[in-house]
Amino acid sequence: MIRGGERRARYLGAGLVALAAGFLLTGRWQLALGVGVGALLGWVLSEPVRITWAVFVIAFAVPVTIDPGYPTNPSYTLLLVLFVLAAWGRVLRAERDGWPPKALAAVLVLPMCAVLAGLVHWHGAKPVVVGVAPLLCVGVLGWHLVEEARHDRRTILRIAETLTWFSVAVALFAKYQTVSRTWPIFDQFAYDWTYTSAFDATRAVGISGHPIIYGTFAMAMALVALTVRGRFWYVPVAANLAGLVLSGTRSAWVGMILALGLWLLLQWRKATWRGLGGALAVAAVAGALVAVDPSGLLPTATDPTSTAQSTATPDAPAPSPPAPASGPAAPPSSPAVPASSPAAPASSPAVPASSPAVPASSPAVPASSPAAPASSPAVPASSPAAPTAGSPDSVDVAGSRISDPASADARFTRISVVWAGITHDWSTVVFGNGPEANVRYLENVGIGDGQAQVFDNTYLTFWYNFGLIGLVCLLAMLVLLYRHLRSLPARLLLVAFAAQIFFFDVWLWLGAVAVLLLAVALGAADDRSLSARAVPAPGPRRPETAADDAVAPEAPALPGSKR
């Protein structure tokens, strides 16, 4: 039987290769790409362990600011793919894990808050579906990762260590972006100019497509490398500390500082002079990575005599006014790009409200999440040039991010607007204004300060859309996760994540949501209170089923974990 299955797999693979080759020979490369992607997904879906790997690879490595032709906006398309992967993983493991009521309740609690708010303030079925979808997807993903981590700790640790080393390559790419003042790939393929280096070439986006999300990724990888402590762990720590500075993401800096403070508080008894010296050495290397300016990486040589004539840069193209909020480019459920997030410079041009399709109103559909508009503003014709002798270096840019007050003023303006909507009457306080309410407000009324049309605060957006009931459930979920997931890596990631999302809307930025999922997986992998005993299946047990139900071999405990 096994040989027969292998033979059928070979025949199927050969047929798919022939089909893809035929499409390529006829010039239909899109169809050939579709065959390749479909074959890859089929291979992934055949094994739950591959599904676990694929979840993190897609979430961290596939940017939502590029639209190669998805049927809907990139965030929702990728969320749907991840939902299918996780749901199928639960089906494959149903005999082993069953369908525990507590897990199902945890998955459904936030989506039910969205449904309740939608019923109280009814604006049609579409806003409810759009608001519920991301929350349900994140819940199912978390359920799948917890169950897999309970039974296979080694795979989760291997994924975490692989991601930290992958982040080193991303940090080098980020350094190239700040040196060349370009965002390769994104400058060519991003669906909106606000996701290109024309928006702010002084900051790096890595492979995440936005400085805020790259800052989140660098923050998470530095914390994972610091606590999991694989071989040569100090290399990814230094690389990601440099990436944090290069991204210019102040919200990630805040999350990192709070997480490191907690780490020092929990580990102070183990502090040694050797450890202090190592920390200073890592910080020095990270600072050198930020400050160094390798001119050999510049794409074009710059004539020093023409510096004065080339001072104009397209970081913030003034001639491109924001598209009107009522433009057809943004569907009703789509919000604006999070340009005014804490990581975005206040002097940057405002993001058109119609640009992104990331619904700002639903906790699952935040204003800061992107989507592909039908007709997004064209990228400015002038592309960013190589930095001149007078261009600011990365250290100066980071310093200006700290001292710039304009973003703080915009944030206080948004807090006052959101608070006025929350306290409109008792029903808006308790039940919110309904799913997608922030999108409706930003499209129909807007915030007239010239900044991006987003609320930029996950907690307040959640309250605005789903009421105090939804906010309490969200906060309770974070607190319970911190309480029950006792491993140090999980707790540091949770603290950093909870702090950072105060400064932007998170749910449709998959690279940021993946930080929460990674924290849940690491915590479940190192928590013995989560029993890994299989659910007995009805009927006689087959030998292969019993072997599959066996718990994975013991992996070393994560540093700082409590048994």
From TrEMBL:
GO terms for molecular function: ligase activity. Keywords: Ligase, Membrane, Transmembrane, Transmembrane helix. The keyword Secreted does not apply. The keyword RNA-binding does not apply. Residues 316-335 have a biased composition (Pro residues). The chain crosses the membrane at residues 9-25, 76-92, 104-122, 128-146, 212-235, 241-266, 462-482, 494-522. Residues 300-315, 336-394, 548-563 have a biased composition (Low complexity). It comes from the Bacteria. Residues 300-402, 532-563 are annotated as: Disordered. This is O-Antigen ligase.
